[in-house]
Amino acid sequence: MGVKVGIIMGSQSDWATMREAAAMLDELGVEHETRIVSAHRTPDRLWDYGKTAVDRGLQVIIAGAGGAAHLPGMMASKTRVPVIGVPVQTRALSGVDSLYSILQMPRGFPVATMAIGAAGAANAGLMAAGILALQDAALAQRLDDWRAALSASIPEEPIDD
Ligand code: RP5
Known about the structure:
InterPro entries: PurE_ClassI, PurE_dom, PurE_prokaryotes. This is N5-carboxyaminoimidazole ribonucleotide mutase. By secondary structure, this protein is α/β, with parallel strands linked by helices. It has one domain (about 5-150): Rossmann fold (3-Layer(aba) Sandwich), CATH 3.40.50.1970. It is built from 6 helices and 5 strands. The protein has helices at about 15-25, 45-50, 70-80, 95-105, 120-135, 135-150, and strands at about 5-10, 30-35, 60-65, 85-90, 110-115. It has a 5-stranded parallel sheet, with helices on both faces. The structure holds 5-O-phosphono-beta-D-ribofuranose.
């Protein structure tokens, strides 16, 4: 079997955000692939990616897009592989356009929608790792360790800066 996580994005310009998902997966030792797949500019590529996702062994797809962000929802329409959507922050509408485009899916075709921007992309990596960890004890341990380290890094009292 090949990689289990696909990170797709609508444009090269989304990579600055989506690399946060890739970095998180790298940190947790989860192999992944990255592709530019645009719902509007490369619809055939989107179709092929969704159509072959199950057979290629993908178990989670992280999809980031901005503006009229149709990529995550269209991918969810094409494959039963769970899709985690990342709304990329936009200049015109601060990413609220992306958020609503990804979030408001019709009944039957869900997208697990993250927060707008870099935090959402990082959380998408964590969410994907959590899904894979259900069947992977070593990854589950790495994720538990990561979470414990984050908690341990938070001071109990604020300091003057
Ligand atoms: C969307 O349009 C992409 O996901 C990107 O967030 C946005 C702008 O794309 P570019 O014009 O920067 O290529 O499809």
